[in-house]
Amino acid sequence: MITVTRSLARQVRAVFRKALGITLRGLTCPVTLETGPEGLRIRAISPDAAAEYREPGNLAPERLVVPFELMADCEGRKSEPVQIEPQGDRAIVAQWRDGKVPQLIRYDVPSNPTKLAFPGEPDSLTENPPAILAALHGAAQTTDRESVRFAIGCIQLRGRDGSIRATDGRQLLVHSGFALPWSDDRLIPGIDVFGCKDLPQDQAVQIGCTGDWVTFVIGPWTIHLRINKDGRFPDIDRHIPRDSAVTSRLRISPADAEFLADTLSKLPSDDEHNQPVTLDLNGSVAIRARGPGQAQPTEVVLSGSSYSGEPTRIHSNRKYLARALRLGFRELHVVSPKVPALCRDDRRSYAWALLDSKSAIGPSPDVVRVVSPTVEKPTIPINRIQRSKIAMTEPIVNQDSPPKVNGQAATNGHVRKLVRRKADQRDTAALIDQAEKVRTAMRSLLGQANELVKTLKQHRRQSRIVASTLRQLKAIQV
Questions:
Q1: Residue 321: which of 261, 234, 376, 363 has the closest Cα?
Q2: CB neighbours of 462 closer than 8 A, spacing ≥ 6?
Q3: What is the predicted pLDDT for the residue at 350?
Q4: Are 288 and 302 in contact, with CB atoms under 8 Å apart?
Q5: Which of 124-128, 169-173, 245-249, 387-391 has the lowest mean pLDDT?
Q6: Can you tell me the distance from the alpha carbon of 81 to that of 1, in angstroms, rounded to the nearest whole number?
Q7: Range with lowest mean pLDDT among 74-88, 202-216, 344-358, 414-428
Q8: d(Cα 148, Cα 461) in Å, to the nearest integer?
Q9: How far, in Å, CA of 135 to CA of 158, rounded?
Q10: 295 phi and psi, to 5 degrees?
């Protein structure tokens, strides 16, 4: 008999699902539980990856092969014991308590155990900081596992400069400064296991290589990824703009970055595939978008951000701009509307292809304008503040000559324009309020779906208990 805890079963299921690609391809595989003088070992392997959990101890020798679904059935948040023992040669019985209710489920021993040999241990391991997990996670999110062109479903580990590199053909991410124990390049599958919350994110990561595998050791977990020796990785360096070619630099303030991250997804779009937005650096920093059949584009003005260099206008898929913000970049480099946009810091480079500049949305006096909130108090005179506010709420016809009041009422035409602008702002506020209500409703539906899944799992467990009991009664009658 082998005993694990329900919380460990949950962790093993989460890590193995990510590492072995079960969630992506619908694969399943048997899990091997083994105890002995060195403690507990839980293993599973697929053609591209292998995963292992180790827990030290001195236990009686035992080896069981169980179906992966056992981990899903008995998983839980608490450290309640799960006892797993063989029942003859063809069955496994697992029993635990769900609160006060005892659970007992019988499983058939997997009839097609894997014939893949589990990878061996590397002769040596090289230590890296915990930050390498975020780099590997970011690289995995930049791959295209469905592509057959080049090896862009892989992550390139380049030994000569210790960089982790990935691209899906539309975006690329390079993170350098790590210690890789080889001098050439290694390609590993872009499996997104390193962002799993059940892996310790604050421990050093040991990296090694043996034969056909690259090995990562993170605390009690070991992840082996098979090396793609036949794949051809594209030369992504030629798509990274040189600093000398940059003509404009946008600096996004922290407050504007937070504001933009929340606003981008709410902007209208007339192309659900590319989700285009126009970034215009010309006097101010503005982002424009237009919905289907929308005569008035929506314009977001980043009041706390600035740019240097030449005025420019680029057209981009908003999801890449949003990802640059999530990655922590606050400076955007532009060469031209036809060259990939680039974000860079001391160790990372993130670039993405731009959309056709002919579709860019230019400035217009007739826009629905949203201005990011100003955090710091401006030091410019009060009359300049008033002029700036008028320029943001009226059509941009002549910003330097705002309507003069001097104690007299404005013209009727000017009043009508102000009323129309205020109506547009109320419409935008109503749309944002409606979007927040939809988001709240979706969260409520998600909660109901989680409860339904929990109920169905409970029903499945009870059904298996009943089926197991009936089989045992039949065996007694015979």
A1: 261
A2: none
A3: 98
A4: no
A5: 387-391
A6: 12
A7: 414-428
A8: 41
A9: 13
A10: -75, -40
Contact predicate 256/302, CB 8 Å? yes
CATH class of 2-116: alpha beta
Name the DSSP class of 202: T
316 exposed, middle or buried (CB, 10 Å; 0-12, 13-18, 19+)? buried
Q: Are strands 81-86 and 2-5 parallel, antiparallel or unpaired?
A: antiparallel
Record the pTM: 0.76
Q: What is the mean pLDDT of the chain?
A: 85
The structure tokens listed for 283 are 């006097």
Domain 241-346+354-390 has CATH 3.40.50.300: no
Closest CA to 306 of 248, 381, 360, 386: 248
The one-character DSSP state at 404 is P
What pLDDT is attached to residue 471?
65
420 has pLDDT over 90:
no
Nearest to 342 by CA among 362, 358, 327, 363: 327
For β-strands 368-371 and 298-301, DSSP reports them as: parallel
Domain 126-238 listed as CATH 3.10.150.10: yes
Helix (H, G, I), strand (E, B) or coil at 245: helix
* Residue 73 Cα to chain centre, angstroms: 27
Alpha-helical (H) ranges within 77-143 are 131-140
